[in-house]
Design a protein that fits this description.
This protein has about 400 residues and is an alpha+beta fold. It folds into two domains: about 200 residues, 2-Layer Sandwich (Beta-Lactamase); about 180 residues, outer membrane lipoprotein receptor (LolB), chain A (Clam). About 25% of the residues lie in helices and about 30% in strands. Strands 12-13-14-15-16-6-7-8-9-10-11-17 form a twelve-stranded mixed beta sheet. β4 and β5 form a beta hairpin. The longest helix has 14 residues. It is elongated, with a radius of gyration of 25 Å.
C-alpha cells in the first residue's frame, strides 16, 4: 500500500530494466506499480514526455469546471481547512474529475510555480494513458488509494515528485466522481499522507453553498504584489483608478486617481491592529488614525478588504461556482468565476488563485464591471514606495482627537 523511499534506487534499477526489456528483473516491485508500468507501456506513453497534455484551455476550462461544480462544491470547504498545513509542508492539493482532468488546485505559491513546469495544473489530463504511472491516473485505474513516490513514476520528469491520491465516490451509488491528490517534491514524502487523503476523499461533505473565507483567502498569496485596477464608486457614480502595493503582511499602500494615498502599517505583534495614514494631495492634508478608532467611527475596513479589493459579505449569502456573465468579457490572466448572491443583489467574481485577488467583479444589476485589474506584478517592492511625500502638508492626528472626546 505504501511507497518505500528507502528502496528508490532499487525501483529506478527495475524501471531502467523494464523500459529496455519490457519486464522486471525481480518480483520485489509493488504489484500496483508493476501493473501500472505495463499499462503505461501498452498505452504508448513516452518516458520522455516533459509534461501532461493540456486538454482544456481558458474558456473551455471554465465551462468544464462549471459542469463539475457539484464535485468542487462538495470538496473545497473541507479541503480549504488544510491550506495552512499544505503551505507549511510545501504541498499541492488537487481535485480531478473521473477522467483525470485537474479541476482545482490548492497550495503555496512556490509549489504552484514548480508544478506548472510539468502541467500539474487545472485543465491538464493526468490519466494513466496520458502520463503513465502517477497517483491520479493509477487511482482511477485501480479504484483505490495509492502512493506513487519518485522513481515509481513512469515518466522521467515526474520522478522529482511524490504523490498520494484517493478516488472520490458517490456515497450512494459508489460511482467514481473524481480524485483527491496531494503532491509535493520527493523530499516531502510522508507515509501518513495516504491516511489523510483517504479520509478526506471519504468524508467530503455535501455543501449547498461555498464559504467566502474558504474560497477568497490570503493564505499562500505572493509575498509581494503590485496591481492596478479600475473600480466604480457608488458614492459619485464614476470610475476611478487604483494602484495597490502590498509588501508581505505588514505594509500596504493604495493610491486613488493620483489624489489620495493611503498607507497602512500592521502591528507585528498583533496583525489585527494597524495604523492608517491618508494623504490628500488636493487638500494638502495628512491624517493619521488607527484601526480601533476607525471602528469607533463606524468604519470596519480590515487588511483583507484593503489589500484584495473584496469584502466579506454581511449577513446571509450564497456563493457558487459560475462562469463569465458575458462571453466577450475577458481577463488578462486565468481566474475562476464565482457567483456571490445576497437577496436580489448578485455579483460575478473572477478570482485568481495564483495571485489571491479578484481580477474582475461584475455587478449584474448594473451590467458592468465594478472592479477590473488591468496590471499585475509580483516582483519585490522597493522600500521607497512606502515613503510619504507630504512636506508642507497640514497634519492631523485623528487618534488624539477621538481619544480626547
Amino acid at each position: 500500500m505504501f511507497s518505500r523511499p528507502e528502496k528508490d534506487t532499487f525501483v529506478q534499477s527495475e524501471w531502467i530494466h523494464f523500459v529496455k526489456s519490457g519486464h522486471l528483473k525481480s518480483d520485489h516491485l509493488r504489484k500496483i506499480i508493476n501493473d501500472s508500468w505495463i499499462r503505461s507501456k501498452h498505452a504508448g506513453v513516452s518516458i520522455d514526455a516533459l509534461d501532461a497534455p493540456i486538454v482544456l484551455q481558458s474558456h473551455d476550462l471554465q465551462e468544464y469546471i462549471f459542469e463539475n461544480k457539484k464535485l468542487i462544491h462538495s470538496s473545497l470547504p473541507i479541503l480549504s481547512q488544510y491550506q495552512t498545513l499544505l503551505d507549511h509542508h510545501n504541498l499541492l492539493l488537487l481535485i480531478s474529475d473521473a477522467e483525470g482532468v485537474i479541476l482545482q488546485t490548492l497550495g503555496d505559491t512556490n509549489i504552484h510555480h514548480k508544478a506548472e513546469s510539468l502541467h500539474l495544473i487545472s485543465g491538464a489530463s493526468w490519466a494513466e494513458h496520458a502520463c503513465g504511472t502517477n497517483a491520479i491516473g493509477t487511482a482511477l485505474e485501480t479504484g483505490r488509494a495509492v502512493q506513487v513516490h519518485a522513481n515509481e513514476h513512469y515518466c522521467t520528469t515526474a520522478k522529482r515528485w511524490t504523490c498520494t491520491a484517493s478516488v472520490i465516490r458517490n456515497p450512494v451509488s459508489k460511482k467514481i466522481l473524481g480524485v483527491l491528490d496531494v503532491s509535493g517534491l520527493r523530499e516531502s514524502y510522508n507515509q501518513q499522507t495516504l491516511a489523510l487523503v483517504t479520509s478526506l476523499a471519504t468524508h467530503t461533505p455535501n455543501q449547498k453553498s461555498l464559504k467566502f473565507e474558504h474560497v477568497f483567502k490570503s493564505q499562500g498569496e505572493p509575498k509581494a504584489l503590485y496591481f492596478q485596477s479600475q473600480f466604480y464608486s457608488a458614492a459619485d457614480g464614476h470610475k476611478h483608478n487604483l494602484q495597490v502595493w502590498r509588501d508581505g503582511e505588514l505594509h500596504l499602500r493604495r493610491k486613488t486617481d493620483q489624489a489620495i494615498d493611503t498607507y497602512v502599517i500592521r502591528d507585528k505583534a498583533n496583525l489585527n491592529a494597524y495604523q492608517m495614514i491618508v494623504v490628500d494631495y488636493n487638500k494638502r492634508v495628512t491624517t493619521k488614525i488607527n484601526r480601533n478608532n476607525l471602528i469607533h467611527l463606524g468604519e470596519f475596513n480590515d487588511w483583507f478588504d484593503m489589500s484584495h479589493g473584496l469584502r466579506h459579505p454581511k449577513g446571509e449569502y450564497q456563493l457558487h461556482l459560475g462562469k463569465a456573465p458575458q462571453a466577450s468579457l475577458k481577463t488578462f490572466a486565468p481566474c475562476q468565476w464565482y457567483v456571490l448572491s445576497q437577496g436580489k443583489v448578485q455579483h460575478h467574481i473572477c478570482w485568481s488563485e495564483k495571485n489571491r485577488i479578484p481580477l474582475v467583479i461584475w455587478d449584474d444589476a448594473k451590467s458592468m464591471a465594478v472592479w477590473q485589474v488591468t496590471t499585475l506584478n509580483r516582483q519585490p517592492i522597493k522600500k521607497d514606495v512606502f515613503i510619504m511625500h507630504d512636506a508642507g502638508f497640514m497634519r492631523n492626528d485623528a487618534n488624539a482627537d477621538i481619544e480626547n472626546d
